[in-house]
Amino acid sequence: MYQQNIPDFYMGQTFIENSHHLHPQINSDYNINPRHNMFSRGYDKSTGQILVENRFVPDNKVSYSQTEIQAIQPIHYHTVQPDQQIYSEGNEHSKMSQNINFDNNTFAITSFGLKLLKGMSRDPGNILASPYSIAMLLALIQQGAFGETQNEITKVLQLMPESSAELFRDLTNAVKKRKSHNIWKIASNVVLADTFSVDSRFKSIAIHNFESDVTNINFNNPLEASQMINNWVAAKTNNKILNLLAPDALQLDTLAVLVNAIYFKGIWETKFRTELTKPKTFNLSNGSKKVVPFMHARRMFRTDIDSDIHSQVLLIPFEKAQYSMMIILPFEGINALDVLSSLTEQKLYAYQKFTAKEVQLEIPRFTVKSERNIFDLLNFLGIWRIFSNEANLTGIGTYQGITPRISTAVHNAVLSIDEQGGSAAAATAFSVVALSNDDSAITFHVNRPFLIVLWDNQLNVPLFMGKIEDPTL
Description:
Layout: E1 7-21, E2 37-44, E3 49-56, E4 64-71, H1 104-120, E5 127-129, H2 131-143, H3 147-157, H4 161-176, E6 183-193, E7 197-198, H5 200-208, E8 212-217, H6 222-236, E9 254-265, E10 278-283, E11 289-306, E12 311-317, E13 323-330, H7 336-342, H8 345-351, E14 356-364, E15 366-373, H9 375-381, E16 397-398, E17 402-417, H10 424-427, E18 442-445, E19 450-456, E20 461-468
Parallel strand pairs: 6-8, 14-18
Antiparallel strand pairs: 1-9, 1-17, 2-3, 3-4, 5-20, 6-9, 7-16, 10-11, 11-12, 11-14, 12-13, 13-19, 15-17, 19-20
Helix pairs in contact: 1-9, 2-3, 2-4
């Protein structure tokens, strides 16, 4: 009887708000009224372009707008040279339709995820993030922001406040209705100082649209307060993230802490056999090698080649095809960062249309952790006012005429793909295909740095995105 191979993904993050005095120009005429700020993004099938419009209608009711045109790069999928032995030439089933219909809202999350991952790629080593989770928390902050503070978030998310609130309400409700062994839990908590007066509208949106807890806490003992928040995160992530906040993360003037935690535990549609896991060599970018356990399987996977980015792409499905893990494997000699720089939202959607082929797969068993302050990353993306004295977050609440600002933004994520857990009954509920000596199948050996995307097939959004440089770290 075989053990289950269950990938686990965990993420926790927090935004900490400290007090500062109101900016003297907060109500000046040139500040943007968020209720008159219109942002739209559409896909023009006839021209193959994405149209992005920012329209601002200040108090004088004069409309100013600017439309940007973002050209979609064509995606070419074709067979490789015979010596690459990927699949037979002329297989029309490997072609994909480029006439893909994008839902503007979920497309915006995908676009944000790519920008996030590319921004994080400046850091060496493994990178991992949940664009869904970060976008959700930013959208929550967006509900309590005004003027340019809100506009920065709107531009980065490419979602108006009303749209983002409705989107995450609908996505959360859709996930709650699912019935399977796959587990995906996401939780938010607006932790407020006892003395902080929360805005009633913000509290209502937080509860009803984001299903967020709203908790009052005494920050006079920062160490105790941080431990209480860490305990909440640990409970929401099945004890995989234990210390989201460092002991010195909170201060006596902290007014609010916005926390988000996500936990995913998926069961493969077809399990890997644990007795086939063998140590093999993984080649690092710096030329060194490490021996790691590799899982093996031979069966049908959706896969193909994207010649534009010089990579093989393969999708491993989870139970009931609710989710899939996308592996983007650069060709030998191609750097994963170069692949990432050329990756587009359209390509990620197009990969979902791959047809299934017989594949001999080898993939390392690994656990990757990412702990970082995303202050610089959000600044890089264009969100900085929430961290400054110019922050206008009065929609969240105030304390004696003082409005909060964000002082810390922490994001932790854990990705684990291993061969532990699962009951015997669940393990035997799926068929297992053994390896054979027949070499007619496509070979997909993940023995070098690669990109991963945990994709929600039903919601059409990325839950986690990452770059694995070293599976042993």
